[in-house]
Write a structure and sequence with these properties.
By secondary structure, the protein is of the alpha+beta class. Helix content is about 15%, strand content about 35%. The strands form six sheets. Strands 3-4-8-6-5-9 form a six-stranded antiparallel β-barrel. A six-stranded mixed β-sheet has the order 14-24-18-15-17-16. Strands 11, 21, 22 and 23 form a four-stranded antiparallel β-sheet that branches. Strand 1 and strand 2 form a beta hairpin. The radius of gyration is 30 Å and the shape is extended.
Length: about 400
């Protein structure tokens, strides 16, 4: 199901997802005949998906066998059919073949001594995402060379430059934001629409939210119920065809509170937990709700502090709770593996021992952090620079297996 991704050129990752192996056909509303007493009737469809001897099921459960190849007509393709029944009074009508209704095959039916079978070709959907370059730098002056943080572990004392460590944390936080919120700069032809001041294209791929924004999305008003979660799990299962799946649900503080209240109402519908406190003893009470199982599926909550960030989401606050509305977002990520490949992975540029993931380099000036006695320098600056660079993208191989509950 998850084809191995293919490197396209030098800036993108391409992969294929094979969906269902057959598709329904759409009625145009054109019906000639009724099929009464075994008579031939004709139905027009928008698509040419049926083969001779296919048994087609219409709305209402009526079935008919296709007699021959279709004839191209004004609205699509017209098929000659006979009803599959021994009831001579059964007929097919407009209620079964109205415009917009769909029909699909349930079987095939051949007479003895048939000459051949027929085939259909179903092609996978192709997805592409683009590798983007992110960078960060920090210069530590000669005077700040002694501003270090010491740590001790198992009797060993270690240190690192405090400014460097803080910058690296900021960079990693930005990389995490990039994985969720990044928006592609590439058009349908794989050409960047954004250029820097030097006229060089800025290449960027989509993050997780953009990749799944056309999948399974629903809303809630900040108050969750167990039934609401069950219905959404059922919808995910129905739309994705997955059974017994495990979704990791990334959410902010508001989403965690809503989930806690929903689970508490499920376990303690009265709203109160009755307990006997032993006199003179310290009593601890409470429960952490982390997972919920229904319909053979499981969801596990994952705290995502990015959805709480007031610097990003402070302009859109829920007046009732005081939380950012983004904090209510619940992202159901399909974290499954198929044939050794994860549905969610990071693709990194590189081959032949080259890997452009989290490259960290030191550029010494008048200060060399590793050799204070060195007589050479890369520049005349009184300090040294630490540079971080990464060329990668996040890929969600099957975005249709994911979904979101967002604040209404």
């Amino acid at each position: 199901r998850f084809a191995k991704e293919e490197i396209v050129g030098d800036i993108s990752v391409k992969w294929a997802i094979q969906g269902r192996l057959n598709k329904p056909s759409t009625c145009t509303g054109s019906l000639i005949g009724t099929g009464l007493a075994g008579s031939i009737f004709q139905v027009e469809f928008e698509e040419n998906f049926f083969n001779p001897n296919d048994v087609v099921r219409f709305k209402g459960g009526i079935q008919a066998v296709v007699l021959s190849e279709p004839q191209p007509t004004a609205g699509g393709y017209t098929f000659r059919m006979k009803l599959m029944t021994s009831d001579a009074t059964l007929v097919i009508g407009a209620a079964n073949t109205a415009a917009g209704l769909t029909a699909n095959t349930v079987a095939s039916a051949f007479a003895e001594g048939s000459e051949r079978g027929y085939e259909n070709a179903v092609y996978p959907d192709w997805y592409v995402n683009y590798l983007g370059i992110t960078r960060k730098a920090k210069t530590i002056t000669g005077s700040a060379l002694t501003d270090v943080t010491w740590i001790e572990s198992n009797g060993q004392k270690l240190w690192y430059f405090t400014a460097q460590e803080q910058t690296e944390k900021e960079y990693m936080y930005q990389k995490e934001l990039d994985s969720w919120y990044s928006v592609s700069t590439m058009d349908a032809n794989g050409v960047s629409s954004v250029f820097d001041d030097k006229g060089m294209p800025i290449i960027k791929g989509d993050g997780c939210l953009k990749q799944i924004d056309s999948a399974n999305i629903d809303t809630y008003n900040g108050t969750l119920t167990e039934k609401r979660l069950t219905d959404f799990l059922a919808q995910l299962s129905l739309n994705t065809g997955r059974k017994g799946n495990h979704w990791m649900v990334f959410t902010g503080t508001a989403g965690r509170v809503a989930f806690h209240e929903a689970m508490k109402d499920l376990v303690y519908p009265s709203g109160n937990l009755v307990y006997d406190a032993a006199a003179g003893k310290d009593t601890e009470i409470g429960v952490n709700f982390t997972s919920y199982t229904a319909l053979g599926h499981r969801m596990t909550l994952v705290d995502n502090p990015l959805f709480d960030d007031p610097n990003l989401h402070g302009n859109d606050i829920d007046n009732v709770t005081g939380y950012p509305k983004e904090s209510f977002r619940m992202v159901f990520m399909d974290w499954s593996y198929e044939n050794g490949q994860g549905n969610v992975e990071r693709a990194v540029k590189g081959a032949g021992g080259i890997k452009r993931s989290m490259i960290v380099k030191y550029i010494p000036g008048m200060v060399n952090p590793f050799d204070q006695q060195s007589m050479t320098a890369a520049n005349a600056r009184d300090g040294f620079t630490c540079e971080w660079l990464d060329e990668s993208c996040i890929i969600v191989r099957n975005p249709l297996s994911c979904g979101q509950l967002i604040f209404a």
